[in-house]
Design goal:
The longest helix has 22 residues. By secondary structure, the chain is of the alpha+beta class. It has 2 domains: 36 residues; 142 residues, Nucleoside Triphosphate Pyrophosphohydrolase. It has 3 helices and 10 strands; from the N terminus they run E-E-E-E-E-E-E-H-E-E-E-H-H. 22% of the residues lie in helices and 41% in strands. The radius of gyration is 19 Å and the shape is elongated.
Length: 199
Amino acid sequence: MHDGEEAGEEPAVRRVGTRVVYENPWMVVREDAVERLDGSRGIYGVVDKPDFVLVIPVERDGFHLVEEYRYPIGKRTWSFPQGSLPGRQDADPEELARLELAQETGLRAGTLRHLGYLNCSHGTSGQGFNIFVASDLTAGETDREPEEQDMRQKWVSVAEFRALVREGRITDDSTLAAYALLLMDDAQMDDRVTGDRTS
């Protein structure tokens, strides 16, 4: 049963066959033969990639971001630190979050809080990501992978973060979704402090 399916509920589309059309260490592209509720058949292309983690490093009313060249879109963009361990789908998300944060920024988190789990590109992939908020940060050395040798990092205020979004310099959907989740979490925290239960 897929995540989100109700127990006993018949899926709207079921797989009746599959074949791998492309594979590398980071992804598998497969073509599934599917059957719909009315009995009609078709195909569905799926990109299988491991889940990843995204870390929101919070400090002084702002965030630490990383910037790198994104080959598929042909430009540099800013985002929150994020990544996965190919071949290690069993990796503990919190452990991976600490590792990615240290590798990409050199920062070590004294406090790491799980914020939530989201899916990305759920029309083409089952991939999802765990979101963590990192605080009580201390600086250290980075340990970036060869693919990250052009990576830059900087701290930005919340106002600067929003400006980067408006200017189209932050276009990563995972970063924006994580920020939205953080805003919702902050609002809930404010409600708990003030006693407001209307939202």
